[in-house]
Automatic annotation (TrEMBL), chain A:
Domain LUD as annotated: residue spans: 49-233
Pfam families reported for this sequence: LUD_dom (PF02589)
Chain ranges passing through the membrane: none
Superkingdom of this protein's organism: Bacteria
Gene3D superfamilies for this protein: NagB/RpiA/CoA transferase-like
Protein name per Swiss-Prot or TrEMBL: L-lactate dehydrogenase complex protein LldG
Organism: Salimicrobium halophilum
TrEMBL record, chain B:
Pfam (any one): CCG
Superkingdom of origin organism: Bacteria
Cysteine-rich domain ranges (all copies): 3-84, 131-215
Designated name of the protein: L-lactate dehydrogenase complex protein LldE
Automatic annotation (TrEMBL), chain C:
Residue ranges occupied by any Lactate utilization protein B C-terminal domain in the UniProt entry: 384-470
Recorded name of the encoding gene: lutB
4Fe-4S ferredoxin-type domain sequence ranges: 309-376
Entry keyword Iron-sulfur: yes
A Pfam family it matches: Fer4_8
Region (Disordered): 430-453
Name of the protein in its database record: Lactate utilization protein B
Annotated organism of origin: Salimicrobium halophilum
PROSITE patterns cross-referenced by the UniProt entry: 4FE4S_FER_1
Keywords for the protein's UniProt record, in alphabetical order: 4Fe-4S, Electron transport, Iron, Iron-sulfur, Metal-binding, Repeat, Transport
């Protein structure tokens, strides 16, 4: 890996700022206000759940609510409703929530069921491109904006939530936090951690893809999914 | 209370009525009004056009004229706003900076002065008719006077205040902008004139003669018969 | 296309803007939507002024320590398998990216919307090198088809209507359906999907880079930036050097200010942070990642009174409230950066010579300053620009100089001022009819081209005051 022209470039900046180059011990100041810590300070988890639902609907997402027990059948029904093929993120949560079994059974009913498998390389993208539905879990869920956050990795490839026409995000209730502030704290912890690596891609997704580039008229479904379905799984 | 009137050159030479109403309003509120004769122009036309050196000559004259005043009160949000800009312009001239700071601190736009210094929210005036208020940009955004004129207008007997659509949009005056970029300025004032007409108000009222002359000039050109008045005229109006 | 767009002089550009009725209606209605959206989402958030203060403090701290944070950022990107190139000029940046494209023998490059690449003219540079560039933001795709520059930094094709777009699609891409935006967008989706899947290189801009993590964050609604960063094997992010924040926590604050100010949304549909190249075993994402950090005139602004112009987060809030922009549209500014921020930034980046009119294209109404989420004193910067144009660049018109000299004499001398009490009325007499001037001479002409001017009063205020005093005293 390379870094080119850095010293001359940064020396010039320091010179324009009229001081020697700074390479260490810069501390962020204590900012005079911190509204992000005040926002939703007293909200209960029940209230946050309501805010999340409301915001998601506002952002054109479809919201479903279910229990852990009923999750597999609901996901199955949604997949069948939305099309004939599905690509889903891998990982242990599929087992934990009883989805693995459901996917296995589903294979005999619809055209294609694929669990993202990095060993297959680019084939995953080809499958995602032709899949009607993509399914992933949300890692952190933001109430204020109706946003699911994905820490993309080898099991949760970026294309699952991107290429299929319908995207289903499974939202365990416990992942719901007030706003982006909290998700950033999670990322900062990863940053400081010795053992964990920050993901190569963090995707904050709020509803389906859309555009207002033609006469400011909002069109849903431009490059990413045309439809986004959030399935909230209530804590048992 | 002793108050020195800052007339502004525009009102002095073009619309002296505004000064007369301002004097009467302040006197009614119990002020002893004087008029420092050596005042001229606050320097804004030069300052906003980039002629800082030329502007400073006018600014120094204004500082001198009001040196002994307790309060400086003027019927223009924009010109008073300019006085508030003085210290920044003299940052590198210590002696003038000190004086500029003093002037800025004791200067008020007239409605702001009535409401926030004299605690007058009702001037006891009666004015029959429908009026709409244009909050000028410098009054609201540079000087930060938003509520005072509205509060005073609400208490005028007989006047029905109608909200002006997109009221906070600039009328296109902008001092030398109206001359230098007259095409754009023209489009802006046409839009303002349209919004005024939408209210169907008989009177357009505002706190800055620059903006009012601009809007009035355009509406006359369009053959509209909306009457344009400075806010002091309404606040000082008596029945009959 | 570099920062300068079009070759018409300023007056011609203004006239073209004012005469373009469709564009003006489109801009006016867009401004209405943008403004109400911003107001609603900022009110919902509460404490908007606190958020602005925080935004300003973060930006100010970052710029004060920009060398430190860029150093940290580049270390992090390298640590995560990326290459970092610091480009002092547009040419350096373009040559470096050309080099990547050539080395990869790339036939096709997909791009997501980026103002800095417009500014440096990257597309032209790559086309020269024989590569096909596909802009994938819907608005940018439309513009690319028509070889038209952007007129707004968030919705670049704001000046075009759906009929024009349909015709372009038909003539250039064989589109056969109607001018319904849904159908037009569906067509773009279908066409561009092929490009995404077959592209060799993806190029993005950068809304904010996070120094502590090396994350380059992209804010979009369409999802094209996600495709650009997920599918091609090679990816290049181009960032203006000031587009960074120290930490993830700072990122969050600025992203929230950006999405609310730009489009009135709590968040846009996609906010995507990319760190270096993909990790081992990952499939999606680039194998090779380059971050190009561009100066192109920005460093000259550091340490000057204009430094806060570099705080800009490109949300277009100032553009969306600007009455001048509303009437002339983006192209009239002759710069890829239009509106108030464009009028401040363009002369700084590209010199006064070609842009000396821009600082005057403002009534100084300060709506921009009030709207800016990071509190850039835009209208004050415009006044300062004017001072430089007059006093240092000496580019103001001769007649104006003479007038201002006269003004200074008049306003600094009570005696001279007193003379004008009578003079004003008398000297304008030839042009006055029924107390009104409809066709004024000299400097009044601009005024009376569009509106009447009243005749100066018969008796000045000071005369009235003096007479009144005399009456009282006697």
């Amino acid at each position: 890996m390379t870094i080119k022209n850095r010293d001359s470039f940064l020396n010039n900046l320091a010179a324009n700022l009229g001081r020697p180059r700074r390479t260490e011990s810069v501390e962020r100041p204590a900012y005079s206000v911190s509204p992000q810590k005040e926002a939703w300070k007293d909200a209960t988890s029940e209230e946050l759940l309501e805010v999340f639902k409301e915001q998601s609907i506002k952002m054109s997402a479809e919201v479903e609510e279910t229990t852990e027990e009923n999750l597999p059948s609901l996901i199955r029904d949604l997949i069948v409703r939305e099309g004939n093929s599905v690509i889903a993120a891998g990982g242990e949560r599929n087992d934990l929530y009883g989805l693995t079994e459901m996917y296995e059974e589903l294979e005999s009913r619809i055209g294609e069921v694929h669990i993202y498998d990095s060993a297959l390389g680019k084939e995953n993208q080809v499958i995602a491109e032709r899949a009607d539905v993509g399914v992933t879990f949300s890692d952190v869920t933001l109430a204020e904006s109706g946003t699911v956050t994905l820490f993309n990795d080898k099991d949760n490839g970026r294309s699952i939530s991107l290429l299929p026409k319908t995207y289903i995000a499974i939202v365990p209730e416990s992942t719901i936090v007030p706003r982006m502030t909290q998700s950033m704290q999670v990322l900062r912890e990863k940053e400081k951690s010795e053992t964990e690596k920050t993901p190569s891609c963090v995707s904050f997704i709020t509803g389906p893809s859309n555009s207002a580039d033609i006469e400011m008229i909002k069109i849903v479904g431009v490059h990413g999914p045309v439809k986004a379905i959030y399935v909230i799984v209530r804590d048992s | 209370m002793k108050v020195s009137l800052f007339i502004t050159c525009l009102s002095d030479l073009i619309t002296p009525k505004v000064g007369q109403h301002t004097v009467e309003l302040l006197e009614k509120a119990g002020c002893d009004v004087d008029f420092p004769e050596s005042q001229t122009c606050c320097g804004q036309p030069a300052f906003n056009s980039g002629y800082l050196q030329e502007a400073k000559q006018a600014m120094k004259q204004t500082i001198r004229a009001f040196q002994h005043a307790d309060y400086v009160v003027g019927p223009s949000g924009s010109c008073v706003g300019m006085l508030k800009e003085y210290p920044k312009a003299f940052e590198e001239e210590r002696a003038w900076y000190v004086e500029a700071k003093k002037l800025a601190a004791k200067s008020y736009e007239v409605t702001d002065f009535l409401v926030n210094v004299l605690n007058v929210t009702d001037t006891g005036s009666t004015f029959k008719g429908t009026v709409t208020y244009h909050p000028s940009c410098h009054m609201t955004r540079v000087l930060g006077v938003k509520e005072a004129p509205r509060k005073l207008l609400e208490n005028v007997k007989g006047a029905e205040v109608i909200d002006l659509p997109e009221a906070e949009d600039c009328c296109g005056f902008g001092g030398t902008f109206a001359v230098k970029n007259s095409v754009i300025s023209g489009e802006m004032v046409k839009e303002k004139s349209r919004h005024v007409s939408e209210t169907k108000a008989e009177y357009l009222v505002g706190g800055d003669m620059g903006c009012l002359l601009n809007i009035e000039g355009r509406m006359r050109r369009e053959g509209k018969n909306v009457k344009v008045v400075h806010i002091t005229e309404i606040l000082n109006a008596q029945e009959g | 296309m570099a920062i300068r767009i079009g070759d018409q002089p300023y007056e011609g550009r203004v006239k073209a803007g004012v005469d373009n009725t469709f564009m003006r209606e489109a801009v006016s209605s867009a401004q209405g939507r943008f403004r109400s959206g911003k107001q609603k989402s900022s009110e919902e958030l509460g404490n908007w002024e606190d958020w602005r203060t925080l935004g300003e403090e973060i930006r100010s701290h970052t710029l004060e320590n920009i060398d430190y944070y860029l150093h940290q950022l580049s270390d992090k990107v390298e640590e995560r398998g990326g290459h970092v190139y610091f480009a002092e000029t547009a040419e350096e940046a373009n040559t470096y990216i050309q080099g990547i494209v050539k080395k990869k023998n790339a036939k096709k490059v997909v791009k997501s919307k980026s103002m800095v690449t417009e500014e440096i003219g990257l597309n032209e540079a790559l086309e020269e090198a024989g590569t096909e560039i596909v802009e994938t933001d819907l608005g940018e795709w439309i513009l690319q088809m028509d070889e038209d520059p952007p007129s707004h930094i968030v919705t670049p094709a704001l000046h075009k209507n759906k009929e024009q777009i349909r015709d372009s699609f038909r003539d250039k891409k064989g589109y056969e359906k109607t001018d319904k935006p849904e159908e037009l967008a569906a067509f773009a989706r279908q066409e561009l999907r092929k490009d995404f899947l077959s592209a060799d290189v993806g190029i993005t801009g950068c809304n904010f880079a996070v120094a502590e993590s090396g994350a380059v964050t992209l804010v979009t609604n369409e999802g094209n930036a996600r495709l650009v960063t997920s599918l091609p094997d090679t990816q290049v992010s181009v960032m203006g050097m000031e587009r960074l924040v120290p930490t993830w926590e700072d990122l969050e604050v600025l992203v929230g200010l950006l999405t609310r100010s730009a489009v009135g949304q709590n968040l846009t549909s996609y906010v995507t942070s990319i760190i270096g190249s993909k990790l081992e075993e990952e499939v999606d994402g680039p194998e090779e990642y380059h971050l190009v950090i561009v100066d192109n005139g920005r460093s000259k602004i550091l340490g000057t009174e204009f430094q806060s112009a570099l705080h800009c987060i490109r949300c277009a809030a100032c553009i969306n409230v600007c009455p001048v922009y509303r009437h002339v549209g983006g192209h009239a500014y002759g710069s890829v950066y239009p509106g108030p921020i464009g009028a401040v930034l363009t002369p700084l980046l590209d010199g006064y010579e070609d842009h000396k009119e821009l600082p005057y294209a403002s009534s100084l109404c300060a709506a921009c300053t009030e709207a800016c989420p990071v509190k850039i004193p835009l209208h004050e910067h415009l006044i300062r620009h004017r001072q430089i144009i007059v006093e240092e660049e000496k580019k103001s018109p001769q007649t104006e100089k003479i007038m201002m000299k006269g003004f200074a004499k008049w306003a600094s001398s009570p005696a001279a001022y007193k003379l004008s009490e009578k003079m004003a009325r008398t000297s304008l007499k030839p042009w006055t009819k029924e107390e009104t001037i409809e066709k004024g001479p000299g400097p009044l002409k601009g005024w009376t081209d569009v509106r009447d001017f009243p005749a100066p009063a018969e008796q000045s205020f000071r005369k009235w005051f003096k007479d009144r005093k005399k009456g009282e005293d006697s």
